[in-house]
UniProtKB/TrEMBL annotation:
The protein's Enzyme Commission number: 4.1.1.35
InterPro entries tied to this protein: NAD(P)-bd_dom, NAD(P)-bd_dom_sf, UXS-like
Protein's name according to its UniProt entry: UDP-glucuronate decarboxylase
A single MF term (Gene Ontology): NAD+ binding
Record carries keyword Transcription: no
Transmembrane segments: 44-63
Any one GO CC term of the record: Golgi cisterna membrane
Origin species: Gossypium anomalum
Membrane protein topology class: Single-pass type II membrane protein
Amino acid sequence: MGSELIYRGSETQPSSDSYSPKPLKPWASVTRPLHYLLREQRPLFVFVGIAIATLIFTVFPTSPAPYVAPHSRFTTLIPDSITYFPIETQQKFSSAHRLGFGSANPTGKIPLGLKRKGLRIVVTGGAGFVGSHLVDRLIARGDSVIVVDNFFTGRKQNVMHHFGNPNFELIRHDVVEPLLLEVDQIYHLACPASPVHYKFNPVKTIISFILLQNLITGLAKRVGARFLLTSTSEVYGDPLQHPQKETYWGNVNPIGVRSCYDEGKRTAETLTMDYHRGAGVEVRIARIFNTYGPRMCIDDGRVVSNFVAQALRKEPLTVYGDGKQTRSFQYVSDLVGGLMRLMEGEHIGPFNLGNPGEFTMLELAEVVQETIDPNAKIEFRPNTEDDPHKRKPDISRAKQLLGWEPKVSLRKGLPLMVSDFRQRIFGDHKEGSNTNNASSS
């Protein structure tokens, strides 16, 4: 018989009961982990581990090992590396700007006895007179230094003794053009400082000040670096206040032959403070007074280099005007120490950095005669336009807040400069051999 499929709609099909889980007990989420821990005896192992660790640290106390900065061949203990910082400054290394780019130490405090971590620092104008001495000191301290210079007034010979050092880089670059770097600190020394150089193209001088300041301070903002501007005593012009304090606003001729430099530096200070107030950039401002020492440009038109070069060449010492104008002269190593203290300190400035010892031009000529040639003659010439009559820094603020004051007198520092000039003028030694005379002073 054929099979039939019979459907009886009126009959209901049997259905299986649907699955329903057991209701959770109210304390299951607490009791189950406890049962698991007790069953596996895990607390016992925890307590045994704690007991063993306590015994080891009690019997064998540990002492911290010195921390050595990575990729640094020059590491110095804090008492040696920061001998020119006051104790209160050493205790305030409280951000990555003082410890190094990308530091893993958020508090920034360096335990006593540990070695200081090197910083990554850019020095614009680092192949120049002051910049090269600053580079020497930073390299000796254990920092990695990038020198940016277009060699308008700088000389490669000033830094060539660092070639081959992995902590040193030299970039030939005009910093009015953008520059992308990752650094902790920026020392901005790039500018023509002598009248011969800044009067050569006065329009470019003042325009470059504005462009430079925007670019370099903008770089500091982008990477969070601390920025130090080297300004000048020329912001005081022909001062009516004597000696000059940082609170003095100056007496500057805005349309004179020197104003491209004077007003350029005043504008640079303005931009620096605007970046600080408006963008939160960490800034420092130094107002540098007359500085001398090895590696100065021989014919840069500044009075000390003029007198020394003229005396060595057996030429008359040219005194402009009546020779009663006064200046204050600091040795380059004193200035470098002041710049580094300012950078590492907690105060913005501006700070006067100069030697308060005051000399007339005739007195300076006499010191040069005593040092080089007692028979050197003095020749008077008409004074230059807008030449300041008096210039002397009040450094009480730097003494109080930075713990800084100059140590090298004119009669002690001048022979070191004369030795360098004699080598370069007469070729007694290879050029560039005078690398560390001033830095070791």
